[in-house]
Sequence to fold (501 residues):
Amino acid sequence: MREIYRDLVKGNQLYNTHEKLVNCSWMSLYIPKLDATCVLTAKAIRHEDVLHIKQAYCSMESCVAACFRLLPSCKLIKYSPFPKVCNLYYENATGHISPPIDQIGQSMHLLLHSCHEDISNIPVGMILQNVYQRNNSAKIHTPSTHKNCHIFRLPFVENFYAQRIQLIATSSLKRCIAFCEAPTHTSCNSVLFSAQEGTCLLLSKARNTTLFGGIAPTLQSSALFFIIFICYNDFHFPHAYSIPRFGEIAPTVYNIFNMTVSLYRVHFYATKAGIRIGLWETVDEYYCLMICLNKFLAGYCDGYYFSHGEKTCLTLSIRKKYALPRSPLTPRIIQFSDDGMLINIVKDLRMLPLKHSNHFTTEAKVSLFQFKEICTVQHSVSNVIPWINIVQQYVNISYLNDCIRICRFIRNFGLCQGIAYSKESKVCFIAVLGDNDDEVYLNEGFHFLTLNDCSKDRENERADNDPPELHVLPLVSYNRNTKYCYSSRMPNELCSSYARN
Fold:
């Protein structure tokens, strides 16, 4: 496969020389939730020959992932991109041969052929060029670890040549970078992040390897590939700071699971006394303590930091030089806090455009009969919308057009930039333009539409006019050189008289 790609880079023509390369009626799609590239081919769905398994409102990538998890029961997919409706089917063995129709109306009919972790095994139908961008770097703040990190975005294809470490569920790039950077001893230096799919794949990529060239055997993906160049503290240590003697701090004592737990609260500065183990997403600080206690009993957690804003738990193992005496029945845990600390948060204006560089929209016209207008709307494919704030919610809204009409009505006396709507939950959110660092994460099944310009619908206006009156005007052609004239509606006698006059 590498040799084929190199030929493409040199500009050579690619024919069916590779035994696994098939025609372009096939397509391959990277699925972040599986960390695999799945191959799909067009196949018409005959409802008399299939058994419907389930329906879901989600992205195309999530739809394929759902079908894969139901294998071998699920093999056929009917997906409607605009409403994001995913229908999964089991194919009965009937012997009917259906024509290969890849799209019927607004739905794509697809057969899930196979999924591959190694791209060298993909029967590629289409090879696409990934474009390198010049403005591909930015700085990002990770509150979970109190770091500012300098990151670079590379073309999607480069991720295939990095070692896989762990797949994590998160919809925040800040947390994704923090998961990679959190452990003190880690080989993780890059991530493959999809806000739409809520996935973060931790990767290790050799620093000195040459870039592959940006050619990938897959369609455009919602996943973005980032290299972490360097991270540094978002704070400065106080002058002449020294790590406190933890045993001299008055602890807060709790009784948990027949254990007497002592918590010693200190500033985050003191984390330099520990080795960072890892990062966890938690609901509150109590669950963070439970995670540390679980690791404490295993012998390698006696400190934690809970980020209230990020809802994350950073676990640490205190170095022997500073550690308190260990006892399985009376655990002593260091509780790190950032209260009162002066934090230097880097706000890079390049970050949001870089993070949403694969965010694209489709445009459509919508008729609003009540306003006698036709409005242009932009439908966002991604579930993460930049520069937007949600300000109001309406429930029991049965149709998308009703949600759009609410937005148009609000514009008569207020602000409405767009709407977020879910057909499944019948919920309509009103959105307004936010600041440069604002963004909205929508659940699967939600659609975001920006309401652009509206113009009068002349056809609807004319529908209210009085019925037209029809008047017949005779058409006469008279030739001066003859005594005849020609008319389609006048008798010959009248025509002659008219001509003489």
About this structure: Helices lie at 2-9, 60-69, 173-181, 285-298, 351-355, 400-410, 458-463, 492-500. The first strand starts at residue 26 and ends at 31. The chain has four domains: 2-126, 129-233, 246-337, 359-462.
